[in-house]
Structures are given as structure tokens and as C-alpha cells.
Amino acid sequence: MSAADCLLNAAPTQMSGTSRRRVAVALGPFCLLLAGCAGPTGLLFGRANTEPLFAEKTLSVQAASDAMAPGRSTKAEVLAALGKATVVKFESGYEVWVYRGSVAGSQPTGKTEFVILFGPDGVLKKSRVRAPPGS
User: Which of 67 and 109 is assigned the larger pLDDT?
Assistant: First the structure.
């Protein structure tokens, strides 16, 4: 039984057969659109895999990693080079910055993560790259 049939069966019994068909015809495209958005390859989920990793869309993970110097690069320099990140701050003063997205030119199988640890002094301590599962 389709979603339109469920809605029609829940409707008052005074509806004529013609009115029920009109409602079904009107709800059909809406149900198809909703179904297309629900799956992992649908509109809502399919586009999430194509977001760039860094503000500069063509910047590779290797180039970003090479541009960072542990013990020397500051938060301001990393922000200028890579753009905004998801930031996790700790009471100890340490911060973790996470960049998630698709690497330019790769298949959208998952999201790559570039993780950076800053010390309380605001200087980069270390970084790492996590490739998407199955790559």
C-alpha cells in the first residue's frame, strides 16, 4: 500500500472516487520527491559527500599538510591557509581543528578528515589525515 493510499484510506468516507483520484494524483509527485531525498544517493544525502575539504577547493590534503609546520604554525596562519574548521576546545587550553569533506578529484565514497592539534600557546603541535573507510 502506497503512502497516498494510506492517506486516502484515513480520509473521511464522504469523498467520491473522483476526489480520491485527484488527491492521489496530487500526492504522487510529492511522494516520489520525498523518496528520492531519503536514500543514501538521494538529494539530501548525495550532496553531502561533495563538499570541499578546505576553503580553497583545489587544495590537496598533502599540500595542506606540507604547509603546516609543527612547533611553528599558528592558529591564525592555519585559518588563513585552510579556512574555517570544526573546533573542539579543551579546558587545558588545547584545541583540535577538524576539516571534513571530499578531496578534489576523488570519488565521493566518504569524507576525508584532516585533524590539527594546537597547544595552549596557539601553536600547532601535530596533525593527521584520516582517509574515508574503504579507500
Answer: 67
